[in-house]
Write a structure and sequence with these properties.
This protein has two domains: about 80 residues, Roll (Ubiquitin-like (UB roll)), CATH 3.10.20.30; about 70 residues, DNA polymerase, domain 1, CATH 1.10.150. The termini are far apart. The chain has about 160 residues and is α+β, with helices and mostly antiparallel strands. The radius of gyration is 15 Å and the shape is globular. The chain has a five-stranded mixed sheet with strand order 2-1-5-3-4, with helices on both faces. The chain is about 30% helix and about 15% strand.
Amino acid sequence: MLKKISFTINGKKTDLEINAGETLLEVLREKLHLTGAKQGCGVGECGACTVLVDGATVNSCLYLGIWADGKNIITVEGLEKNGELSKVQQAFISEGAVQCGFCIPGFVISTTALFDKEKECTHEDIKEGLSGNFCRCTGYQNIMRAAEKALEKKPAIDGGNNN
């Protein structure tokens, strides 16, 4: 059964007709050609498909596309502003936290969710915030360093445009 939905994706209002059983990940990758979120495990365990829905991290492989109706969705592609990478993306590059790149969009989105909170994050907060993401290649030291670097350079909150 087809269903028409309207939502905002990376700042752009979008109207789509989707199959009621499609996941948000399928909608993003197959209908919108936003391929940053990856199909990893398909059961919400690895975090490769993580996106922000109304500011909260969501495993898009488990989130039905029809649930996105009326929501604000941010993918890793939406973090770049005016041709510049976000502070979180820059930190992942500068700390060598990217290897194969498969899981990194999910880690970047999860770190961005921490970055967008109005409180300072401890090492334990970061570990907890990234605990839903799994990396098969880099180990976690560079990823943790990147997250800590992004979060330590956090400017004052300015309406959410500081990621």
